[in-house]
């Protein structure tokens, strides 16, 4: 086992390799992105390590969406 973890940045929760991430993070994603991940996912890609180009693009868009909508908590309070 290689210890597959949730793809949400900073989550780190262990999830089955065929899942993008843990349930809590997965359902924070908008449905159209979840649909894209599912529709481009090829069973066994986590074994062959050769996900489709479409899947990689979907996964990249998910990361971009997270960065835009759920940015890491900014370090505040040090400005004064
Ligand atoms: Zn997670």
Q: Which quaternary structure do these chains form?
A: single chain
- Uncertain residue segments: none
User: What can be said about the biggest beta sheet?
Assistant: none
Mean pLDDT: 90
Radius of gyration: 14 Å
What does this structure look like?
It is a single chain. With about 80 residues, the chain is mainly α. The protein has a domain at about 25-70. About 45% of the residues lie in helices and about 0% in strands. It is built from four helices and no strands. The protein has helices spanning about 25, 30-40, 45-50, 55-70. Helix 2 (about 30-40) packs antiparallel against helix 4. The longest helix is centred in the C-terminal third of the chain and has 17 residues, at about 55-70. The protein is globular. The model has no long low-confidence stretch (mean pLDDT about 90). The site of zinc ion has 8 residues, from helix 1.
Helix/strand layout:
Layout: H1 23-26, H2 31-40, H3 45-48, H4 53-69
Helix pairs in contact: 2-4
The chain binds zinc ion.
């Amino acid at each position: 086992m290689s210890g597959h973890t949730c793809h949400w940045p900073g989550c780190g929760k262990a999830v089955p390799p065929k899942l993008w991430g843990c349930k809590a993070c997965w359902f924070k994603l908008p449905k159209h992105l979840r649909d894209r991940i599912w529709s481009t996912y090829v069973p066994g890609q986590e074994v062959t390590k050769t996900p489709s180009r479409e899947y990689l693009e979907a996964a990249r868009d998910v990361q971009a969406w997270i960065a835009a909508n759920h940015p890491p908590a900014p370090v505040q309070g040090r400005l004064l």
